[in-house]
Amino acid sequence: MGARQEDAVRRMLASWSHDGGIAIDRIAGCFSDDARWTLYMPDGPTLVGHHAIRAELERQATYISAIETEIVLVASSDDMVIAERHDRFMRDGRPVERWVAGAFELSAEGRITAWRDYFDGLDFARQAGVSPDTLSGLEGLDARPGLERRPPVPEATDGTGLSMALHAPQGPQQAFVEAFCGAWGDGTPTSRPDVDRIIAMMAPDAEWRLWVPGGPLVKGREALAAEITRQIAYSGHNRCNTVRAVSNAHVVIQERSDWAVLVGRPCPHQMIAIYELDDEGLIVRWREYINMADLDRKRGVKAEVAHVETAS
Q1: Per-residue pLDDT tens digits for 61-97
Q2: Rounded to 5 degrees, what are φ and ψ at 12?
Q3: How do residues 207-257 score in pLDDT, each as one tens digit?
Q4: Which of 70, 265, 276, 281 maximizes the CB count within 10 A of its CB?
Q5: Residue 312: pLDDT above 50?
């Protein structure tokens, strides 16, 4: 849908490994003067403005090298691109392999006005040898011109919605997935996932990766129904809040700021959710990019306790 916008994002990402190094001028030139770059969601530092973004590129170039970026899947609109990618690089001499979903907003001129990356902070911290509380090295700095601490997407504070307008579905694919999300609950204390309705919207051989990259992979309608039923035992008040979405004939990608109560604790959580549809329009593959470090802090329970421990 947004071929020119996708080309702009591809050009920027390719410039991270140009002629054996990070092409800082090329990357910086892809951003608008007032662009905002959030290093990781939901609460990573946000660089604001061309000068701050260039300074961050120069800082990262001192300890990141040998970058390879593969775009796995992409969808877009006239002003939005969401790209799923697989990054490999060296960070302070340590190899890191990172699965990421990046949300990019673009101006009418095709320059990036906002960039937000979603990935599992626990997985990244383990590989990089850093604390999940200090993934970038900027976390201890106070907010100042060019550096913001305020999350770019508001968190839900209860099950009633968000302090921003939600995305209205565009086209039948987005409407179908939005209805699928609605079947998980309306945020009220008594609502629960409609298991039968959810399963009916998934293909017989559908797969659900609970979180990328290391979350369990649940396959087939019987196993999916069992997993949803298991989650009902410790979760409630579910509400999906779609803030942005892009799609094509067989893919819907949502940027969401959801609400749930998990193991008795309020757990707002932000994500990018990717849905691949088969020829019948049913969901055949579904995966979510969530910062598990953030979610674990909120619920006070490690992922391996709150979720099934082995993948099929």
Answers
A1: 999 999 999 999 999 999 999 999 999 999 999 999 9
A2: -65, -45
A3: 999 999 999 999 999 999 999 999 999 999 999 999 999 999 999 999 999
A4: 276
A5: no
Q: What is the pLDDT of residue 223?
A: 98
The whole-angstrom separation of Cα 93 and Cα 202 is 43
For residue 70, give both structure tokens. Answer: 């593969």
Q: What does the CA dihedral 17, 18, 19, 20 come to, rounded to 10 degrees?
A: -20
Compute, in degrees rounded to 10, the torsion defined by CA atoms 218, 274, 302, 262. -90
Contacts of 63 by beta carbon, 8 Å cutoff, 6+ apart? 91, 92
For the chain, the straight-line distance linking the first and the last C-alpha, in angstroms and rounded, comes to 35
User: Residue 232: what residue type?
Assistant: I
Could you give the CA distance from residue 66 to residue 53 in angstroms, rounded to a whole number? Answer: 21
Contact between 183 and 200 under an 8 Å Cβ cutoff? The reply is no
Backbone angles phi, psi at 107, to 5 degrees: -80, 170
Tokens representing 199? Answer: 């399963």
Contact 243, 256 (CB under 8 A): yes
**pLDDT value, residue 109:** 94
Would you state the structure tokens that stand for residue 242, as one six-digit string? 């779609």
* Alpha carbon distance 47, 144 (integer Å): 10
The single-letter DSSP state of residue 211 is S
Q: How far apart are CA 91 and CA 66, in angstroms?
A: 9
Q: 304 pLDDT exceeds 60?
A: no
